[in-house]
Amino acid sequence: MDRLDELAIFLEVLNQGSLAGAARRLRRSAPAVTRAIASLEQRFGARLVERTTRSLAPTEAGVRLAEQAANILKSYNEAVQDTAETQLKGLLRVTAPVLFGRRHIAPLVMEFQSLHPEIQIELLLSDRNLDLIEQGIDVAVRIGHLEDSSKVARRLGQVSLVMIASPQYLAAYPDLRHPSELAKHQIVLSSSDTFNEWRFGAHEEGPRLRLSPHLVFNDVETRVLAVKSAKGIGRFLSYQVADELADGTLVRLLPEFEPLPLPVQLVVQNIQRMPFKVRTFWDFIRTRLHDLPQIHA
Question: pTM for the complete prediction?
């Protein structure tokens, strides 16, 4: 029996008020508890407890030892806990929007795991905002404003909601100078566009335009393909078409009528009690995402 164990037994004897109670609480045999107390008393050269047939109380030396033992065990437990929390191992669960996660988060997750091979990372890609507590998620990448103010978010950048078309499409249709002229155009819509409407302008309650789409898709990459194929005008988050806008495959339309940009944020449930592995990932991905040109539209 090591000496820390003896101190823990001694404190439990005092807490329970009896050797038998401490034995039951610690799931030790009564003789083992008795031996531990006897060993302590022999080492200190003094009686630590006064025993009667019905009660047990610490002596003056026992009181002093109990105070010191409590501090020693507290420091020991804190040291063990701190060491466990600073180990980069165990499961880390991360979520992000599908396309953003596939393009930008997955490569960073793989790089981070290579740096810390004892960490197992599960990346959940979903365009729904998964519940961090219910799903056991450590870190989330969110695009848009947080609805739950209890969570902690760090803004990394922003993306714009851009209206685009291919040069081939624009060559075949009338010039577009105002959103009201969209009625003369082919529209490629997302199935998530509420009531087949697009909102325009920098105000939260800006004007909304009801659209009659020619094509509707529930997948971002399919919509991008349709717009690149000159099937109509579509609207996307700027990071989703950043490469196509950069190389001229697609053209940005009416930027002066775009809604306010949406924040790109890193989200956790509680930043104060963040485990070390989560904090390490948080710092890593926050720095790397902040440098992405696609989220500074």
Answer: 0.67
